[in-house]
Amino acid sequence: MRAIFATSIAAAVCAAVASLPAAAHGAATPAPPVPPVPVPQGPSPTGQAPPGTQLSAQDRTFLTQAAQAAQFEVTTGRLAGDRAASTAVRSFGQRMVTDHGKELQQLQSLDQTLGIASSPAPDADQQNLTAIWTTVQGGAFDCSYAPAIYALHAHDVQAFDDVAAHADNPQVRQFAAGQLPVMRQHLQMASKNLHNLNCSAPAPSGVPS
């Protein structure tokens, strides 16, 4: 899922954060360019787990990456709720905490049903993005977080749609299909957050520097 291009997202965010002081003139500035979203591929017919597991290797990988992504959204959503200058971005972050927290609960239940353990421990790129967003606040946070989160959600909608249609396990397909409506809502919200970004807006009061 996200591992395909999260490294390029992290690099783009680093570059955007580095350029923010020069762009901080008090006027609304355009969002940094969003990296192209790769189209996820269908399942590999040979990607099967050992007999008796009843879960293909690709389905297992999807569940692990979905858990990592959901935990990442919860963690960074809390940062957005605390550090963003934009009311819309703060509200979006709070929505991420709520919705992806519910997704994590569903994944845990599905893991128990399937007899597997999908660790939500973040990967290296998710750790890098989280570290970046703990160093910025206010408009600087908005202008680095909003474009990256939009790109990640655009990718995830495509990926979940692909899994809902092509996963080997019917319960995995059902899980992915059930997540799509709220994920599409998230994508619409993330798209709106790209408008009227002010990279020099002050941080909300009470945020540690």
Give the tags.
single chain; 6 helices
Could you please describe the fold and organization of this structure?
About 15% of the residues have low confidence. It contains six helices and no strands. Helix 1 packs antiparallel against helix 5 and helix 3 runs antiparallel to helix 6. It is an all-alpha fold and 209 residues long.
CATH architecture: Up-down Bundle
Distance between the termini: 33 Å
What is CATH's topology name? Ferritin
CATH superfamily: Ferritin, core subunit, four-helix bundle
Range of helix content: 55-70%
Q: Using the alpha-carbon principal axes, give the shape.
A: elongated
Radius of gyration: 18 Å
Enumerate the spans where pLDDT stays under 50 for 5 or more consecutive residues: 21-52
**What is the C-level CATH assignment?**
Mainly Alpha
Largest sheet: none
Beta-strand content estimate: under 5%
Short description:
The chain is an all-alpha fold. Helix content is 64%, strand content 0%.
What is the topological layout?
Elements: H1 6-23, H2 57-83, H3 87-114, H4 124-133, H5 139-166, H6 170-192
Helix pairs in contact: 1-4, 1-5, 2-3, 2-4, 2-5, 3-6, 5-6
